[in-house]
Recover the amino acids of this structure.
């Protein structure tokens, strides 16, 4: 054999090995019950991942053919595997800044336990800091089916300042707080808010949104923030908590006191370090009433909205995706069913239209917070006018919430190429809604089944962390049972979804509302590799156990970001919680007792 033929052989063998390695998998999962949500290949036992994409979903035998020495083979031991969850409405960036400072009552089963951990946390809270419980719970989740009393809160916390937020309806302060915040008999009520006073005119400690939640937001904003280092840790801990629940992507909706660009510094730096463990498109929320157009004009000058498209970065990684959920303060209808529906001011259309015109001209996707059909009807009048002048032409846009939307307005959204993102807010306010609007009105609030029948893209999410818990499994429980966290049947059975359809809205369906469902939200070759091995079978556990589902292994963009039990050894190690007194260090996040 001549030298040249020998060299050619070596060369060809080399090329062959490179090519074969190129088709091999980095990660393979075998022996799973894999729900792909791919209608042509619904359930498989194995899946292969190469770099950040799904290579194959099929039998163990076929998939193992893609194995080489470097492949990590994971035995799911018969466990359920699903596409990663995409929460299309969560305040994760703001949530991360405060997560380590907040004691969670999310999921706590008794008021007794809630007050116990409140007391314990008060005892370890250092001077200058506060104990804070910031939404995500309601009184009906407790066996006692009632709120804590101010006496109980003062008894549990004594001289340690405390702030307890109930959805966006009310908050409790103890006596120490009133002194600290200089709230006394002379303190006036803020707009559409109430500082409850006793018979002698002294503040009791109860703050009520009537219905404007500004009294709650603004008081909370007075509490001391964590240090920058602690905020970095807090945001990482919060994302890990979401990964623990199987969340691999979040569409952030901004939120009150979430200012751009200042309050994005933490996530900006984490992104630069490649440490963000969820896909994270985010929307910019207007903060200052009357200055909304100025701010969006400024932001449009600061952000290249289709930067990612131009630079081939896959679409939903950390970046500004558009405007909302609050485009103008005039359009904000507070979802507080303890009180009557607020009528939007007559100035709403005049303040919303120029902002929408700007966003559409700049091809900025937008989302609009709207609970009530009456608000949606007026918003649609403006969107239709803008569309006449500057056609939307397939621009991504959608309403958030839409609990009481009518058939007619669903059709109008469809005609404008829009979508709807719904969340389990009724799981936390169903009882209040029935109390105010009656059982009949609650049966299809929101009318999710009808939205799907009309062919609207619908995403399912949580609206965590304040007006509801961020636990996606509570949302999947609510939409498949029609029940509140208090166990009350609020939605008609006919309006609930089967578990597969529900899961679809929390994965591929959510991506449909932003036109990204062609390569995300399914376990299918060519799709991004976001998937979860569950600790129990979501499809077969009793309905009441759905809220307890969590992840054993979470993969985002082809990388293992979370692992527990058998999979702990192949996952990143836990990060020490900062600061030392953080309630997350002692209780974690979502509670199960
Ligand atoms: Zn909202």
């Amino acid at each position: 054999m001549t030298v040249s033929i020998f060299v050619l052989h070596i060369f060809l063998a080399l090329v062959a090995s490179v090519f074969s390695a190129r088709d091999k998998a980095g990660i393979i999962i075998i022996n799973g019950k894999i729900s792909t949500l791919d209608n042509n290949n619904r359930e498989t036992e194995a899946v292969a991942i190469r770099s950040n994409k799904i290579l194959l979903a099929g039998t163990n035998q076929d998939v193992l053919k893609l194995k080489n020495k470097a492949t990590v083979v994971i035995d799911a031991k018969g466990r359920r595997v699903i596409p990663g969850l995409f929460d299309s409405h969560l305040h994760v960036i703001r949530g991360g800044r405060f997560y380590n400072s907040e004691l969670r009552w999310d999921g706590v089963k008794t008021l007794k336990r809630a007050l116990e951990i409140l007391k314990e946390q008060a005892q370890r809270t250092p001077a200058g800091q506060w104990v804070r419980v910031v939404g995500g719970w309601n009184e009906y989740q407790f066996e006692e089916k009632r709120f804590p009393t101010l006496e109980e809160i003062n008894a549990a916390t004594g001289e340690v300042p405390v702030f307890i937020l109930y959805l966006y309806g009310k908050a409790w302060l103890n006596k120490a707080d009133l002194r600290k915040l200089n709230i006394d008999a002379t303190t006036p009520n803020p707009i559409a808010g109430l500082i409850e006073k006793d018979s002698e005119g002294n503040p009791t400690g109860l703050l009520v949104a009537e219905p404007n939640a500004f009294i709650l937001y603004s008081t909370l904003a007075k509490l001391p923030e964590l240090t920058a280092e602690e905020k970095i840790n807090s945001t990482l801990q919060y994302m890990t908590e979401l990964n623990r629940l199987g969340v691999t992507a979040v569409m952030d909706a901004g939120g009150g006191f979430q200012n751009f660009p200042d309050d994005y510094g933490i996530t900006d730096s984490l992104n630069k370090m490649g440490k963000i463990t969820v896909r994270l498109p985010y929307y910019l929320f207007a903060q200052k009433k009357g200055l909304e157009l100025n701010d969006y004009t400024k932001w449009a000058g600061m952000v290249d909205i289709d930067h990612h498209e131009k630079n081939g970065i896959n679409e939903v990684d950390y970046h500004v995706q558009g405007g909302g959920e609050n485009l103008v303060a005039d359009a904000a209808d507070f979802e507080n069913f303890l009180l009557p529906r607020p009528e939007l001011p007559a100035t709403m259309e005049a303040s919303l239209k120029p902002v929408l015109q700007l966003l559409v001209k700049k091809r900025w996707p937008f989302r609009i917070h709207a609970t009530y059909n009456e608000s949606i009807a007026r918003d649609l009048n403006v969107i239709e006018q803008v569309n006449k002048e500057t056609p939307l032409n397939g621009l991504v846009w959608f309403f958030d919430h839409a609990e009481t939307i009518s058939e007619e307005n669903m059709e109008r959204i469809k005609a404008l190429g829009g979508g709807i993102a719904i969340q389990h807010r009724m799981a936390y306010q169903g009882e209040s809604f029935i109390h105010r609007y009656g059982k009949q009105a609650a049966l299809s609030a929101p009318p999710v089944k009808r939205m799907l029948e009309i062919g609207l893209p619908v995403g399912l999410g949580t609206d965590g962390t304040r007006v509801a818990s961020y636990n996606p499994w509570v949302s999947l429980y609510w939409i498949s049972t029609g029940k509140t966290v208090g166990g009350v049947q609020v939605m008609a059975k006919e309006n609930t979804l089967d578990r597969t359809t529900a899961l679809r809205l929390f994965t591929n369906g959510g991506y449909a509302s932003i036109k990204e469902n062609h390569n995300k939200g399914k376990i299918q070759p060519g799709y991004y590799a976001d998937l979860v091995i569950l600790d129990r079978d979501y499809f077969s556990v009793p309905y009441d156990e759905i809220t307890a589902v969590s992840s054993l292994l979470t993969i985002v963009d082809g990388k293992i970001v979370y692992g527990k039990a058998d999979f702990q050894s192949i996952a990143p190690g836990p990060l020490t919680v900062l600061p030392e007194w953080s309630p997350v260090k002692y209780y974690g996040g979502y509670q199960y007792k």
